[in-house]
Design brief:
This protein is mostly helical. The chain has a domain of 31 residues. It has 2 helices and no strands. The termini are far apart.
């Protein structure tokens, strides 16, 4: 995963100046192959316990 992150960061640097974000994304998809774009699952926040006063 770390190698993919580095590759994407370098490609985004190369795409600096592109007028549309879609063009940069197309460059990443072309160079890195098919990537599943999936959001991380949301987790419920930690429950806060009341401190007795």
């Amino acid at each position: 995963m770390e190698g993919l992150n580095t590759k994407v960061r370098r490609l985004i640097g190369r795409a600096y100046g592109f007028r549309a974000a879609e063009a940069a994304l197309a460059l990443v998809m072309l160079a890195a192959g098919p990537i599943e774009t999936q959001a991380a699952p949301r987790t419920a926040g930690r429950k806060r316990h009341r401190v007795p006063t």
